[in-house]
Design a protein that fits this description.
With 286 residues, the chain is of the alpha/beta class. Helices cover 50% and strands 10% of the residues.
Amino acid sequence: MLEEIVNRNNILRKMYDYSLQLKKLHIKSMINKEAYFKNSPILVNSFPKSGTHLLYQVLKSIPSVKSYGTFITSMPALPHKKVNNSKINKKIQSLIPGEVARGHIFYEELYAESLSTMNVSNYFIYRDLRDVVISEAHYLTNMLRWHSLHPIFKNLKNKEQRILFAITGDFENKTGIYYPNIAERFNHYKFWIDDESTLAIRFEDLIGDNQYNKIKEIIKHYLKHSTIDIDPAILTTWAQNHILPEKSHTYRKGKKRKWKETLSERHLDIFNQIAGELNRDIGYSD
């Protein structure tokens, strides 16, 4: 109950995460390199609005895993500007054995090399971009009120205009905030899908009929990086029972193929011009 209250209140969540970070700094000062190969750090990386918290719940449920509230993002909500690569890499290198962290991290070879060197169990979750634009339009209008883009989404006339803005981005640069179209936004992340050390996961597979097998794949990827002696089947069932999306402060509906009932013909025409080929390339057809 307490955890749910903290998770739903941004100020309380920030204060709680800060206290965990102080504890983490103390622990890190006592860790040697060998510890990373006994109990791998975990990074739950994602394209925004693609199911970060669901994957985080799966991995956080592992008995040997601990969260310290670490969230690493290449493009913070406020100010909405790209963070220097060296700062992101420093945050990656601050991960400690047994920690599970979340992030929205652009792909860079520098980051991939650091994650591999540190034996981090790295995941990347992504989603049909047609559903992403719907979710992002709602999220930046009604939920993330401190985001630089919130007042812009809020001042648009209706849901149709907000979804259109999420598709096209600020292509005329009228806002002064970096917000390119949906294809360009995803292109910052897409090479995680083919990174040999990363397990790429489609959101739809994590909520579909094949959920158990997908979670088992997730667990096996973690166990490849750690010497924890746990039966994958038992751990998979345990993890599956810990998926509770309603406990996420960003949770709304979490449906797949919502675009079928939401996007207009105009939305789809413009989306296909901008990101249709990209969306097909990452596995999403009509």
